[in-house]
Each structure stands twice: as structure tokens, then as C-alpha cells.
Amino acid sequence: MRRIAVAVLALALVGCGADAGDPQPAASGSASGGAAPRTLTLWHYESADGAMGKAWAEAVKKFEATHPGVTVKFEQQSFEQLQKTASLALNSDSAPDVMEFNKGNATTGLLSKQGLLTDMSAEVTKRGWDKKLPGGLQTTSMYDERGVMGSGKWYGVTNYGEFVMAYYNKALFDKHGVQVPTTYDELVKALDAFVAKGVTPIANSGQEYPAQQIFYSLALSKADKAWVDAYQSYKGTVDFHGPQFTHAATTYADWVKKGYVAKNSAGLVAEDMGVAFMGGKFPIMISGSWWYGRVQSTVKDFEWGIFPFPGNTLHPGSGGNLWVVPEKARNKDLAYDFIDITMSPEIQNIMGNSGGLPVAAEASAITDAKSKELIETFGKVSSGLAFYPDWPAPGYYDVLVGGVQKLINGKAEPAAVLDELAKPYQENLESLGN
Q1: Number of domains comprising the chain
Q2: Structural domain boundaries, residue 302
Q3: Single pTM value for the model
């Protein structure tokens, strides 16, 4: 399996010329003339005011304009819902034609192994999507017969990139005289300064993904790429009581004791975290670039910025979530046409100017200052993207949520939590014959 290595700026911004992969009106298989009306069923879980939500809404309009007689039926899903029910939904007659799904061995890899996803390899080559997804962006789109990412057949296609970073409220930093940290020691100093002023510094969500991304960022502060390859790609042995995870577990528990993270955050969902930060209630939110467009369009009352997790050379991140086509989709030809539109410069430019990280935008078309800040920050970390902690094993997302919740609410000691994380990981390795 290849290590992820995403090109700086992000994701191969293309020149200003016409794009050979643009969809053509009334593409093969689309309704036109006297053909019977058809419906493309689309599922995704992006918010309407986020970068991807805005871009894909325009893609729907462009699709319907270029496909007379075809209607798009969009159904809003939730990340959590699809994590739990995707296998059941895709194995039924109600499967959509195209949907957004989480990437990695535990999700897209699992569904591909179960025979629930369409092999899109021929379409990828035909439409040139592989040319728009260089290097590491292909890693999470391809899966072998074991459901392990990085090689094999194309079961998904991404059209954006993502990574985890720190968002910060400049007004609260200035009010309390706190400097933006660039090293881990400076981060601790900043967190101590806020606590001394009676301020809980980090917005958090223990009931969903954000808490485990902080946990993984702490582990990565003691890791190298060989450790990431061992953990994510099974190319080596992972010691859950080694320095990486031991540091993450003990430090997280310590952060709660010191008041850096609120104990009640164990029961909060990601939306609670984001709304609290955007409402000016916390100085820092450590989460993904998928929040960027929403923060950009929502926050009007204070200045804000971003910085990479201080001191780290490795960061949670990858190509974005995937467009997948269920094996039971009724309109695969239309699904491919829709994916093609989301890869077009027009839609990619909208994403890039709305706080997203497009894979095929025109560099000259990205004019928004905040969007440029995001792309520049991504350029600083793109050579050290280390995927996400829940990817190695099916069901591991819930294992991590439960384990990190116990670090927050104090229901288990760090060593016991690490034992809890190690067991299903090792069981998955054994099931793969490792």
C-alpha cells in the first residue's frame, strides 16, 4: 500500500483551459427526446452552507440542465446514520444511485468486500478521473479483495481533500493576551493561560468523531510514517501501550483534569461543538477542514483563523469522502454523469471559493482570501497526512468513540482504554490473515 502524498496546493489545481472531462449534454443513457422520465437518487450528508454542500447543490442544477427529463431526488443523510446502516441500506431495493460515504478500510473497504459497491475502474479511466486524483488521493479510492485501501479496483471517487487543524477565535486570544502557538509547549502554555482566566479553551464532542481526532493528533505527535503504515496499512506491529497511544491516552485524560476539555463534552455531538465555537463560546476548535466553509459563512461577530496542530509533522487527513455507486443502483450511467459534473472546473471553483479543498479547480479562479488561507495551510501539512484513527477495522469508529469518552468522563484509566482499543484491532488483523 502506498503512503499518502498529496501535492501542495492543493490537490492539483488545473490551468484555465477547457476541461476534457466536462460532461456533455444529454450524455449516454440520460433521458432526452421522447424517453421516459428518470430519477437520479442522491444521498449525502454535507450541510447546505458548507463548501461541499454549496458546490454539490450547483452540480445538481447543472446535471438537471444537461439531462432533460431527469430529476434529481436528493435525500439528506447523516454521517452517523450511514456509519451504522449503510450495509443494510445498500443491500435493499431502496439503495440510492450515488451517495457520499466515508473512506477507509472500515467503511468503503468493508462495503466493497461485501459486494455492495460497483467497481468503477472502467469509468474512472474513461472519464479521466484518475488524472485528476494524483498520488495519495487515489489511496482511499482503491480497495483490494480484502477491502484494504491503496490498490485494486476503484470503488469510490473523491472530489476534494481534507485535514484536521485548529480553528481559533482571534478576539478571545487577544482579550486574554494569549499568543497563537506554533509548538506543543506553546500550545500547553496557551491552554493554561485560558484556564487561568476561567475559560475552557477547547470546544469538543465526545459522542462523535471530534474527540478521537484530538486523541489521534496526540498520538501522531510521537509517531513517524512507519508507525502510520503499521497502524493503517498493517505493515508492521502496533503496540497499543507504546509511546504513541500511551501519550495520547494519558495526555487526553490529563487535559480533562486540567480543564482544557470540559467533562460534559463526553455527551456532546459534533454539531454542539461547532455551534458553540461559531457562537464565540470557545477559543479553540480542533476539527476538520469540512467545517471551514460553514465557519466562513456563519461567523460574523469575531475574527478567526486556523493553525496546524502545533509541533506535529503528521496530521489526520486524506482525500475527502467518496462518491460511491451501490451495486444495486438503478441508474449507474446517471450516477457517473453526476460525479463527472462534480469534478468539473465550474463546480470545483465554487467549492474552492466556499472554503473547500477542490481537486481540480482553476488556480486563477480561487479569489476568496479565507479560502486561500485554507489552501496555504493545507500545503504546509499535505506531505504528512496520516488518515483517521477509525479506519483500520470495521466498527472501529464506535470503539474509539466509547474509549475516548471514558477518558473524558473518567470511567476508565488510560491503560484500560488502550486495552479496549487493542482488542478489536487485533481481531481484525487475524481475520485478514495477518
Answers
A1: 2
A2: 163-317+387-431
A3: 0.81
